[in-house]
Design brief:
Blueprint: H1 30-38, E1 46-53, E2 57-62, E3 65-70, E4 83-88, E5 94-99, E6 105-109, E7 118-123, E8 127-133, H2 140-153, E9 156-162, H3 167-181, E10 186-188, H4 197-203, E11 209-213, H5 220-235, E12 253-256, E13 262-265, H6 278-293, H7 309-316, H8 321-340, H9 343-355, H10 362-380
Parallel strand pairs: 8-9, 8-11, 9-10, 11-13
Antiparallel strand pairs: 1-2, 1-4, 2-3, 4-5, 6-7, 12-13
The chain binds guanosine-5'-triphosphate and zinc ion (ZN).
């Protein structure tokens, strides 16, 4: 696939050192090239990726290195991870002409403010590492909610357990996380003894971009330092200029790692809130939706209605009460968000909502089905009901 001629990347020379700092070090793939080709810009002379967002300037990786460029005067404002068309301004200096449509987007919708406007924090990440430390009790809803939001962002979640060297608690937490992650890959790591780091690297798709999310103290910075430190050790390379500050995480930025993946270091992303998780909700709770679809009454409250499959599953212990409650809670929050959004957003939301069963996570449903069948067998043996 070719990018339109006249672009700096027409003759990329992947193996030449001069492009090592260009987009190729920052996740440029044939798929990205196709994406550029699908959104041509007649004035463009090159392409780039936004590596860092400062207050007045953007740091952009272009074919011949890293450039500081001003924000575009019109159109979408770029965020870290954006792919952009570059072309000359009237004075002949390079400028950002356009931002490519994003394949994924990490955004914060401020649920408790009047506005339901989104603040986009980062774009075009492939994997979102949801960091769960073993050294504190699991807050169930947080993991589920975060996974829902990640699915909805367009990226693939990967649960990263940290501090696994704290052995006295690790096994317990790991088991619980795997259960709650419901089909999402889980990798167990320790920056302390280095275990799991290679496996983590291998879970990121080739030339993929990964970002880490997690509560304060979860071990994100330590993990990032391990990943980045390993890169520096392996290549023995000391970067200069714009990379001076890469260990002090003061700005969101992209850091190329040794295996051609890209780490999106986003210290600004802290309490990752709940976003428009319509589709994501289906992904995480498809089994619940499926059960509810079998209710005899369309407006079933899943309380005392006769033969309610949801209630039945809860009673059999097939559907955890806690999980059911977090599903209800999430539904309420989404409904509240949707009310605040404009009409177009509401329509989109309802469309997604209708599709949710279709898009539900299969592995989770089959696991649930298995448990359900087990439960049925056990119920036949006179197992006590909770309710
Ligand atoms: N035992 C052990 N401790 C760890 C490990 N990784 C991180 N820690 C410790 O956990 C604490 C928090 O780690 P950070 O990396 O600062 O956590 P963070 O997620 O970046 O925290 P914020 O910057 O507040 O968001 C530090 O005291 C680390 O030394 C690990 O693999 N094993
Ligand atoms: Zn019901």
């Amino acid at each position: 696939m070719h990018i339109p001629s006249g672009n700096a990347l027409d003759n990329p020379g992947i193996n030449t050192p001069s492009t090592a700092e260009g987009p190729f070090a920052y996740g440029y793939t044939p798929a990205v090239a196709r994406h550029f080709a699908a959104h041509p810009n007649p004035e463009a002379t090159g392409t780039g990726r936004v590596v860092r967002v400062d207050r007045t300037l953007l740091l952009v990786a272009v074919a011949d290195g890293l450039l500081h460029l001003p924000y575009p005067l019109t159109g979408d404002q770029p965020v870290t991870g954006d792919w952009v068309w570059i072309g000359p301004n009237r004075a002949g200096a390079r400028q950002i002409l356009a931002v490519l449509p994003r394949r994924s987007e990490l955004s914060r919708k401020r649920a408790f403010e009047d506005s339901s406007a989104e603040q986009v924090l980062a774009a075009n990440m492939d994997t979102v590492g949801v960091v769960v430390p073993v050294d504190r009790p699991l807050t169930h809803n947080r993991l589920e909610r975060t996974l829902v939001a990640v699915w909805d962002s367009g990226a693939t979640p990967l649960v990263i357990i940290t501090k696994a060297d704290l052995a006295q608690v690790a096994d317990d937490v790991v088991g619980k996380v795997i259960l709650q992650a419901a089909g999402v890959d889980v990798v167990t790591t320790s920056a302390g003894n280095g275990s799991g780091i290679d496996e983590l690297m291998s879970r990121i798709p080739a030339r993929g971009t990964i970002v880490l999310l997690g509560p304060s103290g979860a071990g994100k910075s330590t993990l990032i330092n391990t990943l980045v430190g390993r890169e520096v050790q392996q290549t023995g390379e000391v970067r200069s200029g714009d990379f001076k500050g890469k260990h002090t995480t003061t700005a969101r930025e992209l850091v190329p790692l040794s295996n051609c993946t890209v780490l999106m270091d986003t210290p600004g992303v802290r309490g990752f809130g709940l976003f428009d998780a319509g589709e994501g909700l289906g992904g995480m709770f498809g089994d619940v939706e499926e059960l509810a679809a079998g209710c005899r009454f369309a407006d079933c409250s899943h309380g005392t209605e006769p033969g309610c499959p949801v209630r039945d599953a809860i009673d059999r212990g097939v559907l955890e009460e806690r999980r059911w409650n977090s599903y209800l809670k999430m539904q309420r929050e989404l409904a509240a968000l949707a009310r605040r959004s404009d009409v177009a957003a509401q329509r989109a939301y309802h469309r997604e909502w209708q599709q949710k069963v279709v898009s539900a996570g299969k592995s989770q449903r089959s696991a649930e089905r298995e448990a359900y069948e087990r439960g049925s067998r056990n119920a036949g043996k006179g197992r006590n009901r909770k309710r």
